[in-house]
Amino acid sequence: xxxxxxxxxxLKGLIxxxxxxxxxxxxxxxxxxxxxxxAVFLKYAAERKVYEVALKAHIAKHGGESDNDxxxxxxxxxxxxxxxxxxxxxxxxxxxxxxxxTGENAALAKYDQAIHDHKLHSDHLNMLTEQRNGIADxxxxxxxxxxxxx
Length: 150
Description:
150 residues; 5 helices; 81% helix; elongated
């Protein structure tokens, strides 16, 4: 029972960071007029929604529930930072992409922490690893775009 509480807590933390990413990508898509970036941001926002649904299913499997759809307070602060950067830099693609990189690095750290405790998360370790790899792939694409729009 104690393990279930810890598992649920960890997965809820991942839902927060995933929803922070989803909301961050949506904010970034609204902050740019660049159609290429808008499409990439919306693609990754949709991907994060899929991750959220999978995480919530595993929480339910362990007897918990999550009603978080919007992320956490740190994500709200990060999205505010995107808005501030956008205002100060005149909707600079470089600033938006830099903010997204920061968010994705935070998500990777959170996933690495959960994956490190592989015994606790053994029944959903493959899902966590796949999601982590998806975030890493997104980060690579964002970094390439960052070089393109430098």
